[in-house]
Structures are given as C-alpha cells and as structure tokens.
C-alpha cells in the first residue's frame, strides 16, 4: 500500500492554518489532523494539542518521541512519531508546521508536501487582534516574522486566505485532490 502524504500547512501566524485544516478535515473525514505536542499552557486552545512542560518536551525529544520538532515564539512544538503508523496505513495527514522545519519534515516523511497559506499583512494584524490569544507585544513579534522564505525543492501548493474561509477551503481541497485520486 502507498503511504499517505504528510501535508505540512504553513504560513504566517494568524493566516488561518488551523481554520483551514479543520475545514479540510470536515470536508474530507479521511484526512487525519495531527495533534501536536506544545510547551503551551493547556487552556489556550485554538487547536487540540498535548500540553507539556519544557522539561517533559526535552525528555520526549531525547527519547525519539517526535518525527520533527522545532522552536518558535518562545515555545517548542513536536510532531509525534506515532503519526508514521497512520501514514503507513495510507491515510493523508494534515499538520500545522513551521516554515523553518520544512527541510526536516521532508527528510522525516516518505511523502511530504506543503500547503502554503498567504494573506496580506493587514489581514494578519486584524485576525490576531480579534483572536485575542496573544498580548499586543506578542502579536507585534509574530507580525514581524510574517515573511519567511520557504526552502527550495519542495512540492508547494499556495492558496490565499484573504477572502472567505469556505472559499479558501474549497481551493485548498482542489489543490490537494488531483494527486489523491
Ligand atoms: N478566511 C477567514 N476569514 C475571517 N477570519 C478568519 C479566516 N480564516 C481564519 N480566520 C480567523 O483568524 C484567526 C486566526 O486563524 P487561525 O488560528 O486558524 O490561524 P493560524 O494560522 O493557525 O495562526 P497561528 O499560527 O498563530 O496558530 C482566528 O480567529 C480565525 O477564526
Ligand atoms: O513562523 P513559522 O516558523 O513558520 O511558524 C512557527 C510556529 O508558529 C505557529 O505556531 P502557533 O500555532 O501560532 O503557536 C506555527 O504553528 C508554527 O509552529
């Protein structure tokens, strides 16, 4: 059986990665949403994740618990190695990824592709403020990192999320579809 694709969803903070991923999984229940491990307090929400302390995270990383892990926004994020079993079963998986971890992801997964979500700077600023998860200072730091290059040589599909979310989800689904049949 052909293994599933690890679809790394990237883009600047506030662009709508989690929203688009949820919409894709709702539209196609065969898509598996990867549950990340994050050193963030459990109550901050916006996505389902396993909240751990920094010490726990470092211990898990040392024991090979993650296929890929990275640091960003003063937090640590890990993609559990257990996802390899889901991929081996032929299921496509969606993971909220860091642009800085794409090369490591490409090395860690047999079938790796990138769904890059874009939006104008003013869209990002409005959405981060409305979401209210971060302080003004944290939002300013996130906006300063909005532009990060993607590494060359990867399969990248890009979709804008400046407009309505359901339009973005439909466009992303059609980008993902041709190679899924
Ligand atoms: N097309 C859209 N129109 C209006 N609001 C949207 C749209 N897409 C996402 N949002 C809203 O924008 C905010 C940011 O979205 P989301 O949390 O999905 O972004 P993200 O890219 O996962 O951010 P982060 O990387 O910071 O976790 C949320 O409040 C979400 O409801
Ligand atoms: O800017 P880059 O490196 O692409 O992404 C860094 C991190 O930012 C976001 O974190 P969060 O979900 O907002 O905490 C992404 O999910 C990723 O883990």
How would the blueprint of this fold be written?
Layout: E1 6-10, H1 17-27, E2 32-33, E3 36-38, E4 49-51, H2 54-62, E5 66-72, E6 75-80, H3 83-88, E7 93-96, H4 102-108, E8 112-118, H5 121-131, H6 136-144, E9 156-160, H7 165-176
The structure holds adenosine-5'-triphosphate and 1,5-di-O-phosphono-alpha-D-ribofuranose.
At a glance:
This is Ribose 1,5-bisphosphate phosphokinase PhnN. The chain is α/β, with parallel strands linked by helices. The chain has helices at 17-27, 54-62, 83-88, 102-108, 121-131, 136-144, 165-176; strands at 6-10, 32-33, 36-38, 49-51, 66-72, 75-80, 93-96, 112-118, 156-160.
CATH topology annotation of the domain at 6-34 and 83-176: Rossmann fold
Task: Figure out the total of helices.
Answer: 7
Low-confidence stretches: none
Helical residue percent band: 25-40%
* Bound molecule kinds, no repeats: adenosine-5'-triphosphate, 1,5-di-O-phosphono-alpha-D-ribofuranose
Largest sheet, in brief, is:
5 strands, parallel
Order the strands across the largest sheet as they lie in space: 2-7-1-8-9
Give the tags:
181 residues, alpha/beta, Rossmann fold, 9 strands, 23% strand, binds adenosine-5'-triphosphate, binds 1,5-di-O-phosphono-alpha-D-ribofuranose, Guanylate_kin-like_dom
